[in-house]
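Design a sequence for this backbone.
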C-alpha cells in the first residue's frame, strides 16, 4: 500500500508538472531534431554505452569489434540506418524477451548481464507511467518525463493542423487508472489549447476497480484545481457502448462533428451500435491505437460513414507514428524519425515458422526514458518512403510504416500482454487446477464482427466442470501478470473472452500452439 501510494502521488505530481511545463513549436522542434539525429545518436552512444562498462550494449559492441571511433566513421560513411542494420547483423540488438529479462542475453556462447533498469536514462526523471497492470504486478520500468511532453506537443499540433481538430468536439473512450492513457490524452489536448469534451470509461467492479476509480477522480480533481479542464470519467454500462454513439449522434444533429480517441475494437463496436440503432455518426473521426487496424475493423467503421486513422504507440518508447488524412488503407503511419531510428530484419516468428519483418527501435532523444539500440518489440511492419502531401511530410516525417501487427504479443482490445506470461497460465496453472497437460488449453485471438475476441479452447479431456469456472480462474491468474488487471477488467466489460470446450487448433504442420495470435488479416501468426 505504501508503494502504491508513492506511485500515484508521483503520478499526480507528474500531471501537475506536465500541465505547467513550457510549450514548444511543432515545426521547429521536429526540424531541429531531424537535422541533428545522427550526431545525437553518437553523443548518446558515447555517454550511455562507451562510458558505461556495465551497460550491456558495451559488451555487445566489443563482441562486434566496434569501438566509438568505428561507430562514428560508419555513421558518417553509411548513414544511421545502414549502420544500425550492420550492427544488428553483428549481434548488437536485443530481442523482446532479452529486453524484458524473460530470457538471458547470450552472444558468442556467453551470457551478458542485462536488466531493463540498465537501459534507463539516468538523467531523466519521469512522472507519468506507461500502461500498467497496477501495483499487483511488476512491469518494465519506463518514465514519461516533462521534457518528453514537448515532443508530444509537437505531434499533437501536427495532428490538429492535419485534421482540423480545433473545430471538433473531442471524446475519449479509454479506461481509468491504472492505465494513464486517458490522462495523457487529456493533457495533450489541454496543452494544445483545447479540451476533451467527454471521457467514457468502463465501470469496473467494486472488488477490483473501486480504489482505481477513487484515484482517478482524485488526480482529475487536482488537475481541475489548477485550472485545466480535465474531464471526469463517465462510466459505461457493462458491454454497452451505445451511450457513446448516442452522444456522437446528438452533436451531429446540432451540426457539430466529433473526433473520438479509443482502441480499435471500441471504435468498431461504437460504429456497429450506431448502425443498429439507426444513429447518424457520419463525418466522425476515430483515432485508434493499441491493436492492429485490420481491414474488417476499418470497413465496419467506414460503413457507418466515419473515418478512422491509426496511431502506433509503444509504452516503453512513446508515440512511434501517426497517420495522416491521406492514409486511407491498411495499418499505416508516418514514422516519427526525429525521435527514433527504425530498421527491420527478416526473421521467423516464434514457433509458427512464418517470416516477418521484425521492427527494431533505437531512441534518439536525450530526454527519452531509455536509450535503446536495435530493440525488438515483437512487432512487424514494412518501412518505405511516404509519398503523401500532408502536414507530416511537410515537417520532414517522410518515412512510413505500414502493415503493422504484433507477432509475439496479445494486443486484443488495446491491452498488450506478453505471450510468455499467458503461456505460463495455459501450460501450468490451468492443467494444475483442472487437469490435462500442456496442449489441452489454447487461447485464440480472432477478429469478430465488432471487436477482437479471445477464445479459450479447453480440451474435453480435462476435468473442468464448467466454462464459468475456467473463465473465472483464468482471469484471476491473468490479474497476477503485468497488464493483467486492466485486461481482465476490459475483457469482462466488453464480454471479449469466452471459453469453449473443444480440441485446440492444430497447425498444418501438426503443431498445437498455446497461442494463436492474429495480426492483419492474411497474416496469421502463431506465437508463444
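Sequence:
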Amino acid at each position: 500500500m505504501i508503494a502504491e501510494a508513492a506511485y500515484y502521488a508521483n503520478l499526480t505530481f507528474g500531471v501537475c508538472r506536465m500541465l505547467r511545463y513550457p510549450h514548444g513549436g511543432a515545426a521547429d522542434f521536429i526540424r531541429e531534431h531531424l537535422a541533428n539525429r545522427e550526431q545525437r545518436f553518437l553523443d548518446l552512444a558515447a555517454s550511455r554505452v562507451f562510458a558505461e562498462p556495465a551497460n550491456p550494449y558495451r559488451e555487445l559492441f566489443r563482441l562486434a569489434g566496434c569501438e566509438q571511433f568505428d561507430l562514428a566513421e560508419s555513421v558518417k560513411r553509411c548513414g544511421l540506418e545502414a549502420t544500425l542494420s550492420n550492427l544488428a547483423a553483428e549481434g548488437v540488438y536485443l530481442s523482446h524477451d532479452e529486453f524484458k529479462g524473460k530470457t538471458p542475453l547470450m552472444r558468442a556462447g556467453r551470457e551478458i548481464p542485462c536488466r531493463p533498469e540498465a537501459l534507463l536514462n539516468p538523467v531523466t526523471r519521469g512522472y507519468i507511467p506507461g500502461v500498467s497492470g497496477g501495483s499487483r504486478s511488476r512491469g518494465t520500468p519506463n518514465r514519461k518525463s516533462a521534457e518528453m511532453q514537448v515532443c508530444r506537443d509537437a505531434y499533437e499540433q501536427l495532428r490538429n493542423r492535419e485534421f482540423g481538430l480545433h473545430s471538433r468536439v473531442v471524446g475519449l473512450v479509454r479506461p481509468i487508472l491504472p492505465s494513464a492513457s486517458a490522462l495523457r490524452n487529456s493533457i495533450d489536448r489541454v496543452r494544445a489549447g483545447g479540451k476533451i469534451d467527454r471521457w467514457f470509461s468502463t465501470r469496473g467492479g467494486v472488488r477490483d476497480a473501486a480504489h482505481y476509480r477513487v484515484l482517478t477522480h482524485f488526480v482529475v480533481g487536482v488537475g481541475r484545481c489548477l485550472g485545466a479542464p480535465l474531464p471526469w470519467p463517465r462510466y459505461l454500462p457493462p458491454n454497452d457502448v451505445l451511450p457513446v454513439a448516442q452522444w456522437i449522434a446528438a452533436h451531429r444533429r446540432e451540426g457539430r462533428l466529433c473526433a473520438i480517441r479509443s482502441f480499435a475494437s471500441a471504435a468498431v463496436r461504437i460504429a456497429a451500435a450506431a448502425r443498429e440503432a439507426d444513429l447518424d455518426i457520419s463525418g466522425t473521426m476515430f483515432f485508434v491505437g493499441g491493436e492492429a487496424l485490420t481491414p474488417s475493423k476499418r470497413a465496419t467503421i467506414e460503413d457507418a460513414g466515419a473515418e478512422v486513422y491509426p496511431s502506433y504507440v509503444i509504452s516503453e518508447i512513446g508515440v512511434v507514428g501517426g497517420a495522416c488524412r491521406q492514409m486511407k488503407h491498411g495499418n499505416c503511419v508516418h514514422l516519427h524519425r526525429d525521435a527514433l531510428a527504425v530498421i527491420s530484419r527478416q526473421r521467423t516468428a516464434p514457433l509458427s515458422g512464418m517470416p516477418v519483418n521484425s521492427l527494431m527501435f533505437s531512441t534518439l532523444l536525450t530526454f527519452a526514458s531509455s536509450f535503446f539500440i536495435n530493440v525488438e518489440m515483437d512487432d512487424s511492419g514494412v518501412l518505405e518512403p511516404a509519398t503523401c502531401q500532408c502536414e507530416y511530410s511537410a515537417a520532414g516525417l517522410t518515412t512510413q510504416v505500414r502493415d503493422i501487427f504484433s507477432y509475439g504479443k496479445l494486443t486484443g482490445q488495446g491491452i498488450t500482454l506478453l505471450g510468455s506470461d499467458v503461456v505460463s497460465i495455459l501450460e501450468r496453472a490451468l492443467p494444475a487446477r483442472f487437469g490435462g497437460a500442456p496442449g489441452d488449453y489454447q487461447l485464440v485471438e480472432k477478429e469478430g464482427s465488432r471487436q477482437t475476441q479471445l477464445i479459450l479452447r479447453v480440451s474435453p479431456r480435462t476435468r473442468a466442470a464448467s466454462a464459468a469456472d475456467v473463465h473465472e480462474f483464468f482471469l484471476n491468474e491473468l490479474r497476477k501478470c503485468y497488464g493483467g488487471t486492466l485486461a481482465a477488467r476490459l475483457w469482462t466489460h466488453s464480454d471479449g473472452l469466452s471459453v469453449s470446450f473443444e480440441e485446440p487448433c492444430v497447425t498444418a504442420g501438426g503443431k498445437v500452439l498455446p497461442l494463436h495470435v492474429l495480426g492483419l488479416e492474411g497474416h496469421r501468426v502463431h506465437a508463444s
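Residues 206-225 form the longest helix (20 residues).
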